[in-house]
Every structure is written in C-alpha cells, then in structure tokens.
# Entry
Amino acid sequence: MTKTIKLTEGNILKTLVALALPIIGTSFVQMAYNLTDMIWVGRLGSNAVASVGTAGFFAWLAMAIILIPKIGAEVGVSQAIGRQDSEDVKRSVKHSLQLIVVLSLIYAAILLVFRKPLMGFYRLGEKIERDAISYLVIICLGMLFFTINPVFSAIFNGAGDSKTPFRVNVIGLLLNIVLDPLLILGPGFFPRLEVKGAAIATIIAQFLVTMTFLAEAKKRPELFKGLHLFQKPDIKRIEKIIKLGLPVALQSAFFTIIAMIVARIIARWGALPIAVQKVGAQIESISWMTAGGFQSAMSAFMGQNYGAKNWHRIYKGYFVGVGIAALIGMIATIVLYFGAGPVFFIFISEAAAQPYGLIYMKIFSISQFFIALEIITSGAFIGQGKTFPPSIVGIVFNALRVPGALILSSTILGLNGIWWSIALSSVLKGLVLCIWYLFYSQKIKKLL
# Structure
C-alpha cells in the first residue's frame, strides 16, 4: 500500500504541509550529514574544517549535475500523474536514472583528474590542500551513490510519496552519526583517519541509502517495474529532461562557482574566516532547507495540478506558499539574530572564531524571509515547467556578489562587507522573482 498524497484535491495548505514535512525532514537529514561531519571535524581545529569546507565546494557543485535529472524526474512524474499517463511516468523515471548515472561518472572522473589544481586554487597551505584532496578523492569514488539518492527522492516526491525518502535517508544518517566519531577520531581499536574518516563515513552511509531505495523501488511497480535501464535511451526524452533541468543546474553551478570565488576573496583574511563562513552557512541553511522542503512540495503540487489543468488550485496555491515563506523567514530571523552566539559555539569552540561567527549570523538574519520567498517561488515556476525565470534571477544576482564583495570589503566594513554583499543579493533575488511570478500569474488568472 503506497503512502501517496493526492495533490489535485483537498485543502491546499494541509496538502502542502503534509507533503512538505517529510521532505523537510529529508532535507534536514541531508544537512545533518554535513553538520555531523562539521561537529566532529571541528574537534580537529579550524584547519581541518577549512579542508572539508574547501573540498565540499566540489561536492556542492555536484548538486548542479544532480538537478538536471532531479528536476526531470520530479516535474515529469508529477505532471504525468496529473494527466493520468502511467507510461509517461515510467519513461520519466527511467531516463532520469539513466542520465544521473552517466553524469555522475563523468563528473567524478573530471574531479579526480584535476584534483590538485582545483585545490591549489585556494592557496590555503600544503597541509590543508593535502587533506582537502584526500577528502575529495574519497567522495569521488562514491559519487554515484552521492548523486543518485536525490533523484530517487525526487521520483517519490513527484508521485506524492515524501515519507519513503525521509525514512530511507534517516537510515543513512544514523549510520553516518555512528561512523563519524569512530573514523574521524579513532577511539579504541578504530583508526584515526581525521578528514578522510569524515568522507568514508559519508560514502558508506550514502551506499546504504542507495541499497535501501532499490529495495523500496521493488514495492512500487507503478513507478519502477519494467524500466529496462540498460536499454538505449530515447534521445528526445533525454533532450526534454536536459532542457527542463539545465537552467536550474546552470544556476546551481554558477552559484557554487560564485561561492568559490567569494571564498577566495575571504581567504585574504586567512583560514579562520573560511571556517566561520562554512559553519555559518550550515547553520543558516536550517531556514533554506525548510523552505526547500516546501519548494519540492510546491513543485510537485504545481506539477500534478498543471498536468490536470486545475488552474484554480495553481493560482491559489502560490499565495498559500508566500504565507509559508513569511512564517519560515520570521522564525529564522529571530533564531539567527538572538541565538547567534550559543548556536555558533556548538560547532567551533575556538575563542578567536566567536566574534566572526556572531557578526556573520546577525547580518544574514535580515535576508531569511527573502531567501524563503525566492525558494518557494522557484518551486511554483519549476512545477509548471518554467525553469528559466528562477534561473536567470539567481544567476544575475549571485554574479553581483563578486563585485559587491570586492567593493564593500575595501571599505571600513572589511570582511563584513562580504557578508553584506551576500545578504543584500538574497533580498533582491526574493523580491524580483516574486514580482516576476505575480506578473506570470495573471495569465493563469485568465484561465480560471
């Protein structure tokens, strides 16, 4: 018996919340992998955190690769279900899985070949670079498991079943929580692998998640039976998936590249601010991970209703999403501003890092509502197959972070000017994308 939620009927708020809560839980599980690593790696000092954080940019860049088949799966499955086209559901599943396997292997190979110049770009010192390379190599060897799991999650989410991905990912997290201290610090007879241990623990956990997803797939014949994954793919279907997912993937890749350039600017102040920024971003991600859960729910909701041509629910659903974004943003702002010190201390206890972390989190507290607004509005666009607007807005305003960081950091603001550049660009992204959707929604209103 499946645990799907019918998205084309019923109370919109209750439907979105019911679908989003397990997705949010899954997002927190994914974040918890990184937080668990940071907590234990943080015990090794800021240099180790900087190593994992630097290598982590390239694992983060993999999200751009994942997004192409992930968007294809989520939108393709949800819209096909809305049209009640069971064969098209399976075609979307098959080609999304085929695409992620190929893309992940190519990306891992590129990182392995160019690992030394990529790490050397940051000029953080021989020890940090050596540890970062070790971490990156291990992640590359398990890249397939790291990348295919979000696609499995997207397939289930698009079908209205967000509980299965949550349950499966929790299993992986529990294993990661157990393995991290054992492999990083090496108590008892366990080897002390430090940074390498964090990477090994993550990949083992991701492998378990993949195996569990495969077991769950056997229980869902309406999604996975008769896929024939080793058959030659339909090139037109692959092109359709790429056309749908590429703008979002480019936005994600560009976002990561900009973040890497900004990190290079931050490095002028030494390794400590990089570690602070890495940890601060992980803490701040609590709000955008929550919004991200509602983005996936909104995307699936819009997709199924778009396939069913249920224009009234599409129009009303967005404004329900804006209300959700307002609530998320308000809570996140309060927590980040007033709880900055105690929360940051959990991850880095070095006294020298505390002033940096406190200022970082207070500056970013102002942008939380706008980040949530941008994310949920993106979900509304994506579910209807309109991936260009959120992508172009993200690319343009993320690009402005580099000159903004250079200009503001050269003033009396110093390092804080970089934080202000990022925060203000987030405010602008949320405002501009929301205004764009409001204009677009007038076309939907005419169909009511």
Remarks:
- The chain has a mean pLDDT of 86.
- The chain has one domain: 12-445.
- Residues 12-445 form one domain.
- Residues 46-83 form the longest helix (38 residues).
